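Objective 1.3, modelling of assemblies. Example input:
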Amino acid sequence: MRNLSGSSEPREAPLSDLQKRLEALRGSTTDGCVSDFELDRLVVEELTATERAAIQARVEACPHCQARLESLLRERRDFASRPDPIWLGRGRKQRLITAVGAAVAVAAAALLFVRAPVEEPGVIRLKGPERFGFIIVAPGGEVRGDQDTGIASPGDELQWRFRTAQRRYIAVLAKDATGRAILFYPEAARAKAIEPGPERSLGMAVELDETLGEEEVIGLICTDAVALEPIRKALERGTAGFPAACNLHRYRLTKTERR
Amino acid sequence: MSAKHRKAVTELYRSHGAVVLRRARQITGSAEEAEEVLQEIFRGLLESPASIGRARSQVAWLYGATTHLCLNRIRNRKNRERLLRERMEPMSETAASAEDTAFVQQALGALPEELSDAFVYYYLDQMTHAEIAELLGCSRRQVGNLLERAHAQLERLVGTKGGTIV
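Predicted structure (C-alpha cells):
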C-alpha cells in the first residue's frame, strides 16, 4: 500500500494504532486494484471503449477486483428489483414525520381504532388486537379525519398508524382514480418488519396529489416479508394477488377540492 | 417539470441509484439515512436537473453530491450523537465492521470539510490519489497533503482524547 503522501517507499517507523486502523479500512486493496469509482463507471457503462478495455484487463488480472465487481453487480440487481419510489413517478411527496407531526398524530390517535371500520364486501376483518389505519392531516396541521371518515383533499397528508401483538411485516399501497397502483410504504422490495406494541405511527406520511376521485388505500400486515411488486401489479390489474400470509385492511378515500 | 425531464431522472435513478445508496451507507453507517440521502439527491435532480447535465461524468457528480450530503449529516451534532448510540446496521458483505463504522463516523465528524472529502475517497472508496485529484480538481500532490493533514489531525485528537477521536 502507498503511504499517504503517495510515494511507495517503505515506512521506517512502526505503524501507530491509528495508522493500523486506517490501513485496515482499505482492506486488501493494493495499488493495482481498480477502485469502486472506476468499477461503478464500468457498471453503468460510462467509460469509453478504450477506458473500458483497460479496466476490464485490470479486473481480469485481479481476483479482489473481480469479487468487488460481482458485489457491485449484485447490489445493482437488488436495487433494480425495488419498485420506483412514488416521489419519482408522480407529484406525490412522501416524508418522514417530524416531532411536531408525530405529536399531532398522537393527539389524534383517539380518533383511530375506537370504532370498527364500516363493513364492506371483500374486506377481511381482523380478530384480535391487530389494526391498521391512518389520519388525514390538513396542511395547517389540523386533523380532518381518519380511515373511516375517508374524505380528503389534495395537499392533505395521510399519516399511517398501526398496532400488532406479534412481530409482523407491513406495507401500504393505494389505487387511485386513474387505476394506477402505488406502493406507499416501505420504499423497498419487501414488506418491512414491525415489532409488537401499542398503537403507533409508521413514522412516514404521504402528501396527496391533485388527482381527484375515489382512491383505495390498502394496509397489509403479514407474517412474512412478502415481495411487494407482484402485489402492486395485481392491484393495478384488478386481479387477486394478495398473499395468504397477509391480513388485508382496505379503505376508501374520496378526494375532493378543498372548500 | 416536463415529462421528458422526469423520465430522464427516473432512468438515472434506476441506473445509478445503487451507487448512491451504497456509498451513503458506507459514509453514514446507517441504512435509513442512506435511503434519505438517495431520496434527497434524486428529488433535487427533479427540481434542478441542470447541475448534473453539465458534469463530464455522472458517476463523479453523484460521488460528490453523496459525499457532500453525508458529511453534512455527520457534522450535525445531534445526528452524530445518535449515530454513535445506534447499533450499526449491517451493510454489504464487503463493508467494514460495526467498530470500523463507528471509527469512521468519529473521524468524519472530527475532520474539517476539505480533509474529510479526501478521507472518504481514499479510505472508504479506496480511490487512488490520481482519481481523487480528478474528482476534487487538484493535483495528486495536494491530495497527498490533504491525507497527511487528516492523518496528523486524527493522531492529535487520538493523543488528546485517550484513544478515541471525539
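The radius of gyration of chain B is 17 Å.
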